[in-house]
Amino acid sequence: MVFSSLFFTFAFLPVIVMLYYLLGKRFKNIVLLTASLFFYAWGEPIYVLLMCGSIIINYCVGTLLGRDDTSRRKRKLFFIISLVFNLGCLAYFKYFGMIISTIASIGGWGLNVRTPALPIGISFYTFQILSYVIDVYRGKIKPQKSLILCALYITMFPQLVAGPIVNYVDIESQLAERSITFKKFNSGLRRFLQGLAKKVLLANHIGLLWSEVKAMPNNEISVLMAWAGIIAFSLQIYFDFSGYSDMAIGLGKMFGFRFKENFKYPYISQSISEFWRRWHISLGSWFKEYVYIPLGGSRVGNWKLIRNLFIVWLLTGFWHGASWNFALWGLYFGTLLLNEKLYLQKSMQRWPKAVRHIYLLLFVVIGWVFFEFTNLNDMLNFLRAMFGAGDNALIDNQGIIRLKANAFLYIVCILSATPWPKKLALFFKRIHSNFYGIAANVYYCALMFFSMAYMVASTYNPFIYFRF
């Protein structure tokens, strides 16, 4: 089940909201837990059993880790069991096929191994589980005594299948007690509509253009068309993922939860380091907290810094998918970040802002080529087309026609990826505070109307990060 579907919007969500508020505080967590398991089982009926098993095992491990009579040796053993189970499930379902095919390719064997289907959102909820177990082991938090609350933390449907990754410590108190007001519900509903519009009105439309470019034969893609296409994908993946995060944060508010922001206008950044402080913040924070800092972070010598960065970014790449192009993508950004930390950090401050911004956009857009193409030959051919290294034309009539036809869409997407619309809204609020409320209501009603109209009329509705 996806948020940008008519069933979710007009059936699932209204029923859950009604039950949540009518049944009162005593049953609110049971309603949310039941809804979350149903939400997951809708798309993965068999894998809901895996999730339930994971909940019980990690709840028991957390309880054992938190007991005063558990010896240090046993605590370490229980912790290792939890790590092996959680990472083992992730490795089997997500990486088994890649490992076997890689071994078969190296050995020249013609193996035909049936790989297991990938449980939706396994990377997201596995990292949430790990944050809980690791923090209990460290003594940073106490184990959750209630199995229902522990299960709710792991399965909460607003951010279950595509994040943001929520650390247990951030919502521990909210699980048991949270305030619910009309103002918070209204704010959450507006945030949900904002994310829905990002997804169906921007990401899906600009994504259609990228799909057309990607399907073109390599010798027919001009330099202009190649850049127009990969820029379209850069905008699609931003609005697709940030739109989902907005919807998740909005739904959380509607049920009384406060989730941290996951995106802060990453394309306005002026360095690679800043970009990754603004993009998929919850994932970057997770790797920083549980991998980078335990390895020593940046407070080490250059050789260890190189090691730490490449370990984190190799893992970041593989987290996104079981394909070597994701490892290449991770190492690409690891190299760029290392170069900034060791050589460019000080000198970049003297560059004009426009130069820094162009530098950032150039390397990020190129990086999305590594991310999108799983086939190495297709990746290299597209890069050749982008830089005119083959027989591809510089500019062609087809590219000009496509750009003209989609010029307005590009402009809207580019402006929407900046804080300018929000700044204009705040400026309007200051000078016309009385009229602002009416205008805002009309705006969100329009977002809902056009989003629903698109969902009724269109069948193109992928969520890019669902496959991770």
Walk me through what this model shows.
The protein has helices at 6-22, 28-43, 47-66, 72-107, 122-138, 147-155, 168-176, 182-214, 223-254, 272-278, 281-292, 302-320, 324-344, 353-372, 376-386, 397-405, 407-416, 420-431, 433-457. It has 468 residues and is mostly helical. It folds into 2 domains: 6-177, no CATH class; 184-467, no CATH class. The model has no long low-confidence stretch (mean pLDDT 89). Keywords: Acyltransferase, Cell membrane, Membrane, Transferase, Transmembrane, Transmembrane helix. Belongs to the membrane-bound acyltransferase family.
Percent range for β-strand residues: under 5%
Distance, first to last CA: 16 Å
Mean pLDDT: 89
The helix content is over 70%
Q: Please work out how many helical segments DSSP would assign.
A: 19
Please tell me what the overall shape is: globular
Number of strands: 0
Order of helices and strands: HHHHHHHHHHHHHHHHHHH
Oligomeric nature of the chains? single chain
Cα gyration radius (Å) = 23 Å
Number of domains: 2
Please state the structural category: mainly alpha
Low-confidence stretches: none
Major β-sheet annotation: none
Main location: membrane
Protein name: Transcriptional regulator
Organism: Geosporobacter ferrireducens
InterPro entries: Ac/AlaTfrase_AlgI/DltB, AlgI, MB_O-acyltransferase, MBOAT_fam
